[in-house]
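Schema walkthrough. Field components (list of strings):
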Amino acid sequence: MPEKQLGAWSLDSQLLGANYWDVGWFGLLFTLMIIVFIVFNVKRAKKGDNLFIRRISGLNAIDEAVGRATEMGRPVLMVPGLSDPVNATAVQAINICAHVAKTAAKFSNPIIMCAYSASMFTLAQEVIRDTYQSEGYPERFDPDSVRFISDRQFAFAAGVSGIIHREQTAAAFFLGEFYAESLIFAETANSIGAIQVASSTEATQTPFFIAACDYVLIGDEFYAASAYLTRDPIMVGSLVGQDWSKMTAIAFIAIGCLNASVMQCNIAAQTEEIYETHKSNPKELADALEDAQKLQKNNFSIPRLIKADKPPKDLKIDREKAPEEPGKEAETK
Amino acid sequence: MKPEQIEVYRTIAAGAGVLATIGLLSVLYKENKFYRVFEHIFLGLAAGWSAVAVWTESLREIWWDKLTGVVETTGAVTEPGRWAYILLVPIGAMGYMVFSRKHNWMAKIPMGILLGIWSGLQIQSFWTVYGPQMKQGMLPIIPTSFDKFIVRSDAPPELAAVTITWSQAISNFLFVFTLLSVLSYFLFSFEVKNRALKNFNVAGRYLLMIGFGAIFGSTVMMRFSLVIDRMYFIWDEFLMKRILHMG
Amino acid sequence: MNDTIWARNPQGDLKMFIGGGLILGIVLFFGVMQTPIQARRPLVWLVTFLSGGFMVAYTYWPKPINFDAKTELPKNGVETVGSFLQQSFGVVSSFVQIIAAFLLGLGIFSLLRIHLMNIARQKKDWVFSVILLVSMLSMIIFGYWDFMIRQGEKAVDFDDPQFWRMPNMVRDFLFDGLLQQMDAAMFSIIAFFILSAAYRAFRARSVEATILLGTALLVILSLMGVVAGAWDDKVAALAGDGKTGSADFIMNFKITEVAGWLKNTFQTPAITGIKFGIGLGTISMALRIWLGLEKGGKA
Amino acid sequence: MKKGGIPKFVIYALLIACCSIPLFFKIPIPNKPSDPSVDFYKTLSALKEGDVVLLGSDWTGSTRGESKGHMKAILRTLMRKNVKFVIWSSADPQSPRAALDVIAEVNAERVANKEEKFQRWTQWVSAGFYPNADVAINAVAQDVRTAFGSRRENDTNGVQQQIFKSPVMQKIKSVTDFDLVIDVTASKTTDFHVQFISAKNVPLMFAVTGVMVPETQVFYNSNQIKGFIGGLKGVFDMEQMMEKGINVKDANGKIAVASDKISGEIAPLPGVSVGQGTKYYPTLHVALLLMIIMIGIGNYEMISARKRQKGNG
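Field assembly_structure (string):
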């Protein structure tokens, strides 16, 4: 095969999709657009543009819950999800927990934070200690209030529900990634009458939280939470950036829909025509339809932009053989 | 072990399993000492197993073998040792500085590596997940022929495949409507004043509930299958097979 | 065997190199420890940025077409970098796995600390801490013992109990007999909670709750083969045999059809919508961490 | 907190009774396999002898009520069709053990049935466990030879060798060389498979637990996966399809398992196919019925309480 086709920008039909830049460019561009939106808005917010966030009902409950715990003199429980190892969901959850801890620190209310993984434990310990320090109450921070329970899902569930029972927590915050154990937590906390604020980034667990908890953050609201609570320009900016991306996606889907509708109408009309002319001969009909389909596939359409054609599986390009890796030599001997 | 010893052992193990199951399930009645014993055994065993598995299932092969190379019992070297892997030890050790009052900031370095890689992965994978899903939303919402309401079973298959009837168009429209209204329900940076848009958002919330209801339905199936499995273990695998020697 | 700087023969001077590496590592560790306060944040950020940067570069750098990096040579500059990224991918992935594994000890350390403290101070319920530590230690001891035996005699098929010795049996008892069963037991507790939550909270209190309830019931019914079968037969009987328009219309009301329609028309886009939002939230979080804008990710 | 109504303890006792008693009876249940299940089985049936499947096993004892049934059904099909497979795990250190146990069980069953034992090394290999599911799956997607490179197994002579020396892995250079990728999972690994492996244009299928069905349905609808089996219903579907085929007429001219998803028929696979799914499915009915009744009672109580309030006011 000629060498020019090996270049990065080749558009030869046979090699189509073999490299991102051929047809997969659209996806990369879209991702890049999201990045630009977010970074741009963060810049804008940092400059001091006043950006707006609408009210999110579940979040106002946080202070109320901590307040109630203080009244009752019982601890506040926080579980920042089951992320292992730590990821953004966990970081986000810990950020919200830090906000809770801030309120608790002010009232010198005891807190318990249950960490699922070791890395989460490290991070949570750090952040919560920082929170107490920056609030000016470093002496109120009890290092044992952040606990590693277990990194096995159900051992963790058993441990946390044990803690809920024994410590009789007055308020419980379940924020982050939750899976099957969500209902164990929610029902256990419910059975001792704790007020619960919950959210799961897993859509499949949300209905259970809705059924069993007092306040639930659905889906995305979880990510909006820290922007809403802290009004930190970076958070707010990136939230606005996300909104821009979402609106672009909405517009894009809407346009794609119209495009698909028009296309489908054309295809239907064409097919009907072919059907009427070749009705009597099934073989001819099948061939004609197949030809038509091939042509239709080559037409420009928005869905086609998304789903890039893949290269044929047996595509082979001649290259020079690399010399054996030195370390590997023993293997061939 | 001899076959009869194996049988005895199996019965004891199954009995212990049944006891542990009942112990954990007893929390349903009331939090009690019996539950607490098994809770702590469970936590201990789980932590112990993690400590074992971290070496036997991962570190030994992905780290130690790479570091020290592999020498067969015959004396042939199949993998050279890559000494630079030892440099990961101090990086890991930095994580343990979290307990130090003075240098706890160092724990953020291994954390930073994990989070950095994770962040990069998100950027890499965003489109592969959500691109096709956006495409899935691009459905034809205009009927191709206005006189058909449903697909008739006597229509020729060639035509049925490309025709969009009224009912299909409506279904497709509902699909797109649900998708868009749910998406717009999660827009946070606007105060929606317009009445129509407000209703659009409320519709989004209701449609979400249909989704959640369906999720609830299919989840229930799984939860019950697990209880059934437990009961099968207690009644059939333990009581019938091991104790009563039936079935 | 030809040694390179990075790969040494285990029978040769590898030990020396590892020793050197260890010393280098210790120097590095103490070097980092001495970092002045104002340089700490930038250092942490730099580490994060570089590790994230690798993945981003890997994504955006054009990669060679149909390229088997092990046996074939790249053709030009663009491809050389692409193949470098491709080849180092596995190594970088293994770094993450190794570091995450190293951190696991941290959790166990914290567990030990809490429970040893409980015992030392004779806090309330310290007996349970003893139980926890004993079961943990026995799992560790027998887990490794069993592993050593298996490693020692590779030819023996230890999956067959007739070759077991005492440690193998104890490990099997702890792992399969107790741990696995407790895992399953804890999971099955959820079903009980679901049932009581359904009774207590699953009520048609508001429009939202009613919608949730109705859909859930319909889906549950469609999962019950008996009900679905009976319902669908009824519908088919109602429709009759005739190929009339109304018959075709009625056939759409089979419960499997209705539940399927609900799933495809409402459930799928609802989940897609939520997940898309979460995906955006995740990517923006990732960006903030990568670019060092996030509190949690930097000092 | 509102109390009253049926005490919790009674509800729990009812559930235990409903999940235990029907287990002792054999009740035949009519079934129509769901579309994704049919597609799943169709794709499996299309495999030829000598094809290689990458089989992810990402479940543990905790979901054995469902996942074990999935795993067993898939393994039985693969073994009967003489398809080679590689198993690997990334979700949990316990998963490899669980998978090996099921393979041993199916092999024992084959031996009892006078079929040949499916040989490790020549017909299947285990690539072990990799921590950090997302990174691990991505590593497999990008460069499977490096990802699995350090794994070694005994060959037929008892000598430890890299698994790439085995006949199973002979033709595997990248993940695209697998004829099918299946993940039997109870965790997020589905997402990671879609994120990283689906981008490589390899046919991908899942066997997921009931909870994950709605999410997996999204991947199925947008053609990111070829098919999936979900929950206990999925196990039952598989067992039925293997036992009776699809659209196959029996002696009376009745179709036992029908689906309009495929034209033509798929013949049944000879051998023991009935298992967990067929045992548990009738019991599931009773449990679900209990659920519906409890919801009904709950709502009835609410409505009557409201009426009383109105009457008083």
